[in-house]
Amino acid sequence: MPDFYHGNIPIIDTEQPNTNLSHPKDVMFGYRPRDYTKHPEAMFAPPSGMKLILPVDWDAYFDEQEKQQSSLEHIYLSGPNGTPAFKFLEQARSNYCWAYSTGNSMMIDMLKRGLKVPRLNPHAAASIIKRGANQGGWCGQSAEFGTAHGYAIEGKGQGQWPLHSHDLRFDTPALRAEMAKNKIDEQWTDLTRQIYDRNLTQNQVATSGFNNLPGPRDYNHWRHSVCGLRWVRVERGVWGQLILNSWLNWGRHGLGVLIGSKAICNGGLSIRSTTI
User: Fold this and answer.
1) Residue 155 class from Cβ within 10 Å (0-12 exposed, 13-18 middle, 19+ buried)?
2) Percent of the chain predicted with pLDDT > 90
3) CB neighbours of 109 closer than 8 A, spacing ≥ 6?
4) DSSP secondary structure string for all residues of 50-78
5) How many helical (H) and strand (E) elements, i.e. helices and strands, does the chain have?
6) CATH number, domain at 255?
7) What is the Cα Rg of the chain in Å?
C-alpha cells in the first residue's frame, strides 16, 4: 500500500492504530455524536434524484476525471503550480469542526460552479447556534443553518464576522442580510433508511465524488468532521475518501485520503451552494 496518493497527499488507513489521524497540539476536535431520534435532519432531495455509480464503474469514472483533470481535487488545486485556489478554512482552537466542514464544502462548491468565492467564517454560524459557547456539534446542524440563514463573511466590516470570534454582538441585522447572500441551495442525503441508521452509504459517497458534489462528513471514531471532496483510487481495487480538513499544518494543503472500513462517514450530506 502506498503511503501517499498522487505522490504527496497522505493516505490514512483507519484500520491501523496510531495513524496520523492525530491532530496538531494547538487544535481541537469538536464533533459530538448525534442522537438522530431527538434531532432529525431536514431532507431536501431523495436518493432517487441521483443515479448511483456502482463499484463496477468506479475505475472508468475515476480514469475519466484524471484524464480531464475535472474532479474537485483538481479544481481545488488549480492555483499556480498546483497550489490551492483558496486557503482552506481553519478552525484554530475551537470545537467548531462541524461548522468548518460545511463552510469548506460551500466554498469548494462555489469554486466548482465558477462563482466568486467569498471568505466564509464558520465561527459565526457555530457561535450563533451555540449562543457563543465553544461546543461540539454535527455537520447537519451547520448545514441546516447554512440552508436557512447562510454563512457570514470573514472580516471586520459592517455585516461581517471577525476571524475566530465568538462574540454574539456581531450578530446584527446587517450580518444576517449579508449571510443570506451565501446559502446552501440543496442537500442530498439518504432517505432509504432511518436517519439515525445511516446518512450516506459508500455508493452515495462515491457517487457524490464522481458527480463533483462536496459535502461535510462526520466520523464518530475520529470525533471529527471534515469536507469530503472525492472518491479516489489509491491502488487497484483500493478506494478511499479524499478529504479537506480544517486543521493547520495537516496533510497536503489540508488534504488527506481515508481508507478502510472507517472511511465511510457516520453522518454526512452533499450540498450545492450559491453566493450573490
Assistant:
1) middle
2) 70
3) 213, 214, 271, 272, 273
4) S----GGGHHHHHHHHHHHT-SHHHHHT-
5) 7, 9
6) 3.90.70.10
7) 17
Q: Tell me the residue range of the domain where 260 lies.
A: 4-275
Main-chain dihedrals φ then ψ at residue 55, nearest 5 degrees: -50, -30
User: Which band of pLDDT confidence, cut at 50, 70 and 90, is reported for residue 198?
Assistant: very low
231 bridge partner residues = 241
pLDDT digits (tens, 9 = 90+) for 72-130: 999 999 999 999 999 999 999 999 999 999 999 999 999 999 999 999 999 999 999 99
Domain tally, the chain: 1
How crowded is residue 209: how many other Cβ atoms within 10 Å of its Cβ? Answer: 28
**pLDDT higher at 182 or 195:** 182
* Grid coordinates of 203: 455508493
What the block records as the C-alpha cell of 103 is 463552510
pTM: 0.90
